[in-house]
Amino acid sequence: MNSPTVSCFDCPLRCNPLFEVPSEDELRYMSSFKLGELTVEPGRTVLMEGAASAQFYTVLEGMGLRQKTFPSGQRQVISFVMPGDLVGLQAAVMGEMRHSVEATTRMSLCVFDRNGLWDLLRNQPKRAYSVTWLAAVEEVFLGETLATIGQLDATQRIAWALVRLHDRLAMLDDPEGALLANGGPVALPYRQQDLADALGLSLVHTNKTLARLKAGGLADWSGGQLRLPGRRQLASLAMIDDEMPRRPLL
Amino acid sequence: MNSPTVSCFDCPLRCNPLFEVPSEDELRYMSSFKLGELTVEPGRTVLMEGAASAQFYTVLEGMGLRQKTFPSGQRQVISFVMPGDLVGLQAAVMGEMRHSVEATTRMSLCVFDRNGLWDLLRNQPKRAYSVTWLAAVEEVFLGETLATIGQLDATQRIAWALVRLHDRLAMLDDPEGALLANGGPVALPYRQQDLADALGLSLVHTNKTLARLKAGGLADWSGGQLRLPGRRQLASLAMIDDEMPRRPLL
DNA sequence: CGCTTCTTTGACCCTTATCAATGGCTGTGG
DNA sequence: CCACAGCCATTGATAAGGGTCAAAGAAGCG
């Protein structure tokens, strides 16, 4: 845990049109609210299930995943964590995390104090609204995930996940949307096992399904790079109608 | 939609220890915030996916479910809606519902104005905290659901759902917890198809699994009444460790 | 280079979906 | 009061999607 290196005013995420634009005043407040930055190495745990964290975070860079582990050892990947995501809100508001957050690449996170959340809710109604918004977006996304896992077959599930991941990453990399439109390559630093655990599939079957999509020229995920020449077909396969809304930051 | 019939001061849910106790002041505020009550007949839709609702609601009585329907006709039940639940927050904050809410019994709901949410977040930090809390609880629950559907087999999934439903309903009916402890009967006004769609199982297999649980003396769901003589075993089958936290209301 | 981690591939089989038909309950109308 | 329609629960037979097991390539890394 280091001292603050990036001021909120220079936040690299802020200029990304994926996120809403905060006012000067809000930036000033957030700056004072920010405790510092945390860097986490790949494979390390950011937040542990069951732990009561005194902090919560916004992801500045790097990627990770939320997961839940059963006593039996099986695990479910709840979602993939990317820059701009808020993690640890559960612990901040309920006092305890009900899933873990782990880094898959080196991550750096903005650190906020748990007690500061109360202050934020009291003094910054706009920010309070943002927190609520982020929680609502999370709920929407989990609902969609649930529907996907509950109702679709393996090919559709994988198509859904690839499209969602690609869209999100493409918007981060290239806000203009060119990457998104042409299915251009984005970095996807996960293992097939992660995707399998996210979709309730076995590793083997995930691998074979990915191979089939690749052979069909729809999706190519190799060397940590994801390309979706057939984004349209994949989206229609997975019955994805509309896209995720723009989200607030912090 | 009728005029207000129940004042927040006399709210039948308030006295239930399942919920937190609000202050006089908060009650006064909520009373002014409440627009009225809405009654919905069984089978009717409370909120429609894709619709922009000008209101959001707290469930006063009756039960329903959140669901998502695919173009192909398949549906996923996202969760079961019970008294005390907040519905429509998505639309209030994001402008559009991403799932539908349908009544399975006659329901009555507290109606709040969407614009009032802004006011609430600004002027009632404690209530703002509650809203955030409710959103966080929802997220926790969806995460647990995801893990259940993604990782457990049919018997475990059904065991999980029955225990969760029973616990919640038992606490509503009998705050002392006697019902909960002895697995006593609670009203569960859903169809097997609803449970199947919630767990990503076919109706047939759900039925057969329920039959097996009944034969084993673990769970008996018939005539709309649910009894769980084997709550302990069911919970351990589904690897349920701890229970859901107490929740704020409104 | 040898070790570990991840990906890929083949063979087998189990859980669960699908199909199909019957039984039960409730409400309605002749 | 009975017949019929609709909805839901129940049960048996069959099949397929995906899990599990096993082992061999690739690829990063000290």
Task: Give the helix/strand layout.
2 copies of one chain form a homodimer.
Chain A: H1 24-33, E1 34-40, E2 45-47, E3 55-61, E4 64-69, E5 75-81, E6 86-87, H2 89-94, E7 100-103, E8 107-113, H3 114-123, H4 125-151, H5 154-173, H6 178-182, E9 186-187, H7 192-199, H8 203-215, E10 220-222, E11 225-227, H9 231-237
Antiparallel strand pairs in A: 1-8, 2-7, 3-6, 3-8, 4-5, 4-7, 9-11, 10-11
Helix pairs in contact in A: 3-4, 5-9, 7-8
The structure holds a DNA duplex (30 and 30 nucleotides).
Strand order of the largest sheet of chain A: 1-8-3-6
Largest interface: A-B, 46 and 46 residues
Q: Specify the CATH architecture of the largest domain in chain A.
A: Sandwich
Work out the radius of gyration of chain A.
18 Å
Oligomer: homodimer
The outline of chain A comes out as globular
Helix share of residues of chain A? 40-55%
Tally of alpha and pi helices of chain A? 9
Polypeptide structure, described:
2 copies of one chain form a homodimer. Chain A is of the alpha+beta class and 250 residues long. In chain A, 42% of the residues lie in helices and 20% in strands. Chain A folds into 2 domains: 117 residues, Sandwich (Jelly Rolls), CATH 2.60.120; 88 residues, Arc Repressor Mutant, subunit A, CATH 1.10.10.10. Chain A is built from 9 helices and 11 strands. In chain A, α3 packs across α4. The mean pLDDT of chain A is 92. The interface between A and B is large, with 46 and 46 residues. The structure holds a DNA duplex (30 and 30 nucleotides).
Task: Give me a quick take on this structure.
2 copies of one chain form a homodimer. By secondary structure, chain A is α+β, with helices and mostly antiparallel strands.
